[in-house]
Design brief:
alpha/beta, 9 helices, globular, tRNA 2-selenouridine synthase activity, Arch_SelU_Cterm, SelU, tRNA 2-selenouridine synthase AAA domain-containing protein
Amino acid sequence: MVILMIIFGLFGKTGCGKTEILKELKKHHPVVDIEECANTRGSVLGDLYHLRQRNQEEFEKELDKQIKKAEKEGYCIVEYEGRKIGGVEKLKISGLFANLNNYTYKILIDCPYECQINRLLNQYLPKNEYEKRILISKFELLRNSLKREEILKAIDEIIKLIEKDEYYNAAILIEEKLYREHYMRTIRKIQADLIVYNDDLNKSIKIIDEFIKSKLADR
């Protein structure tokens, strides 16, 4: 595969603020937004509520548009999503962004645990009883697609917490049992070129923006 641009990758745990950072960087830099192309937030609950996840053909078409646009600029910023994205129905991601070796620079985002849980809470908190039923149904669908006993028990507990409106405790369990193993597997594989502790969004954006500009200036 011939790579025609510099790729700056954002890595980090679910809920660390990568999507918010990417949104702000998009104002000044070329971005390939995989979640936007898929019309999902990227996690197992990514197409929750108002989002309708695209099918594979639609996803690839949108992704190709953004890649071609970025190639004209000679570089892009992308949030690493792995080889697949989506909930029960997974979309396969182009080898360009699925392969860790294709990322020229790897930027690792970290944040306080409390901030992480609050982001997850804000993302999934239902606004009414109708959305609450949708949230529960998503976990029921997810449960039917999995086999590990530990995860199945965790999903049952998450559903019970949601039914009792204990959303904060549900968010803790979602992070611990559904997300942590996945994102830690990736974090262990990379050697970060920049580590940003995201306890202040504007400060984090400034640090990353300056890092990108300095690396582009060196080329």
